[in-house]
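Each field is set out underneath.
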Amino acid sequence: MRVLVLCILWMAGLLLPAAAWEDTAVGIRFAAPRRWEARQKDPGARVRFVAPAAPGLRSNIGFQIVDLDPSQPLDEQQILTVARRLASDLQDYRMLGSKAVSVAGLDGHRLSYRAVVKGKPIQATQVFAVRAGRLLLFTLTTEPDKHPAGRTVLDSMLSSIEWLDEPR
């Protein structure tokens, strides 16, 4: 029975090692989601991973970098500012949760919310941390019923983060 399960998982690609995505200028490497398309030049993101085609909105995870004043740590006020900006920019915005997290050894924050975008309900989770004066932001955007599966992919990606040599 175990052999059968392993064969099925292998055939589905779930036992294959994930390809790594890295940015040496930022000093980060992480596992790219299996079978998700990487879009390197997607507006607003350093890279965006898009889930395989399925009915409805295709889940995606974007990775953005924003240069910050290195003397400013990520604090509660900045997190509230992000949440307020989201609330003003999105229709039917509803905060689902916000909490401090660790992102590959860095202090970070996770923010989850629902909203309506172009008439469609979405659920998003954003995870951010500051490293070397840069805000590193991972954003999962998906339909609410696809969010648990997308969240698993996001968490796997975050747990695979490796810091390369000091960023340039």
User: Anything to note?
Assistant: The domain at 19-163 is CATH 3.40.1000.10 (Protein Transport Mog1p; Chain A). The CA atoms of residues 36 and 52 lie 6 Å apart.
